[in-house]
Design brief:
Elements (H helix, E strand, L loop, with lengths): L4 E6 L5 E4 L1 H10 L5 E4 L2 E4 L1 E4 L7 E4 H7 L5 E8 L2 E5 L1 E5 L15 H8 L2 H4 L2 E5 L4 E2 L4 E8 L2 E8 L3 E4 L4 H4 L2 H14 L3 E2 L6 H9 L11 E3 L3 H11 L1 E6 L9 E4 L7 E7 L2 E7 L2 H8 L7 E5 L5 E2 L2 E11 L5 E10 L14 E4 H8 L3 H21 L6 E8 L5 E7 L13 H24 L1 H4 L3
Parallel strand pairs: 1-6, 2-5, 3-8, 9-10, 9-14, 14-15
Antiparallel strand pairs: 1-7, 2-6, 3-4, 7-8, 11-12, 12-13, 16-21, 17-18, 17-21, 18-19, 19-20, 22-23, 23-24, 23-26, 24-25, 26-27
Length: 458
């Protein structure tokens, strides 16, 4: 993939795209010149010529600029196929929860999206956000939000080359309106759509269980567990985790503990923003009290005796992303230390974030274990990508290391949270994890334009 170059608006009306001399010479050598110019879903006739000042940039005359509805100058990529040059790409982030505020158009998430859009010049693309009510199907345009030095600005642009799905939750995602929009973009307009849905924990578990490279990292688990299965897990592992199959953010997780020399059953959970611990005389009483509606759509998972720091369990959040070449890479890794009495390592439950290097220094484990964690994360990401339908561009993996230094996977999230990036030493990781989704969108754009048969055939 070539590096992005700057595109400048040229105040002339002669229907021309000016390109660096080496690009023009290549067309001259092949005796084949582009005759059309595309931006997003919009295509117009256009001639090409070498840059008059021999600069390593693109210049587009103002008549073409206006016809294509290009929002501003900036760094872009150029793709060529079938005598059509595509500039951009134009990438839309699809979400919900918009407000009427021009300062905070997506409410409390406005800052998050502003930071996400801020990387467009680093990667080379036009990047905006939109919702269902911003789409004009008749004109094939979107009145989307761009974030510039002046703040949020509305611009009407053609349909994008790629859509990045950032719907905020499972409930919104399941609404028919949003499902139909996705289907229409993908099926009618052949626009790639990536990160198409929240993962179902049990579906991920079932798929990875059949893969010889990943099954060894999965704790023994049961969906809709029976009391006999739970008793067996407790007998072997002394503690069991219960989690909703469709849950996220650590909500609804319970830990049940039964030590061999103790007649009681203990349950850790979070209630009304506090960590709780209750004792029961029997497992039946515990389940009836803690799960009054039963264990339908609940997963019971063997407890892992994790490595600890100051007697607090530790697990790891690893972000993986596809890059501009469509390959998986690690974008961030952090350790999460459980808070006092917490059932999880989530920050809202009192957990603490540490860089992996900080923690491994405290625990005395060498760098080779970091590399093993990273290798395992890439293996798991590739397996999930292979087995789950759709274009997956990022995954947040929760991994743990037990006392025997075996690596376990607890969860995989298709739209991972970003609380680990509150750590000051993870600022670079934060930037990389924001750049890579757009870089992957650039890759998808090129693939859909130059090799559509690989993307849109079943």
């Amino acid at each position: 993939m070539t590096k992005p170059l700057y595109v400048r608006k040229y105040q002339h009306d002669n229907n021309t795209l000016y390109v660096p001399e080496h690009t023009f010479r290549n067309w001259l050598k092949n005796k084949s010149f582009p005759t059309q110019l595309s931006f997003g879903s919009m295509t117009i006739p256009c001639r090409v010529a070498p840059h008059p000042d021999k600069k390593n940039e693109y210049m587009l005359t103002s008549d073409c600029w206006e016809k294509l509805s290009i929002p501003h100058e900036g760094y872009i990529h150029l793709f060529e196929h079938n005598r059509t040059v595509t500039i951009g790409p134009l990438v839309g982030i699809f979400t919900a929860g918009f407000t009427n505020s021009t300062l905070r158009p997506i409410g409390d998430r406005s800052l998050f999206f502003a930071k996400l859009l801020s990387v467009e010049q680093k990667v080379g693309a036009f990047y905006f956000i939109f919702g269902s009510h911003h789409i004009n199907w008749e004109s094939g345009t979107i009145n989307g939000f761009f974030h510039t030095k002046k703040g949020w600005e509305r611009c009407e642009v053609p349909f994008p080359n790629v859509v990045y799905d950032r719907l905020p939750n499972r409930r919104t995602e399941s609404l028919p309106t949003y499902q139909k929009i996705k289907e229409r973009f993908v099926n009618d307009y052949l626009i790639p759509w990536f990160n198409p849905g929240f993962f179902n924990k049990w579906e991920i578990y079932k798929q990875l269980r059949t893969d010889e490279h990943t099954s060894e990292h999965l704790p023994e688990s049961y969906l809709n567990p029976t009391i006999e299965q739970i008793e067996a897990l407790l007998e072997e592992h002394q503690h069991v985790y219960f989690k909703p199959a469709g849950g996220s953010l650590g909500l609804g997780i319970h830990q049940v503990i039964k030590l061999k020399d103790d007649p009681f059953y203990y349950c850790r959970f979070r209630d009304h923003q506090k960590n709780r611990l209750r004792r029961y005389s029997s497992l039946k009483r515990l389940l009836k009290k803690q799960f009054p509606t039963g264990l339908t759509n609940i997963i019971a998972q063997q407890g892992i005796h994790l490595l600890k720091v100051e007697n607090k369990p530790v697990d790891f959040r690893i972000h993986t992303n596809k890059n501009i070449d469509g390959k998986w890479q690690i974008s961030a890794i952090a350790a999460k230390v459980a808070g006092p009495g917490s059932v999880t390592t989530h920050i809202k439950s009192g957990g603490e974030i540490k860089t992996s290097h900080e923690l491994f220094e405290e625990m005395g484990i060498g760098k080779e274990k970091i590399e093993h964690l990273k290798d395992t994360a890439i293996t798991l990401s590739k397996a999930i990508d292979h087995k789950i339908a759709g274009n997956i561009g990022e995954i947040g993996l929760d991994l743990g290391i037990d006392k025997n230094e075996k690596i376990w996977m607890f969860e995989a999230n298709s739209k991972p949270g970003r609380t680990i990036f509150s750590h000051t030493k993870l600022r670079y990781d934060d930037l990389i994890s924001r750049c890579l989704p757009l870089a992957y969108a650039v890759y998808l754009s090129k693939q859909s334009l130059t090799r559509p048969e690989l993307m849109f055939t079943t």
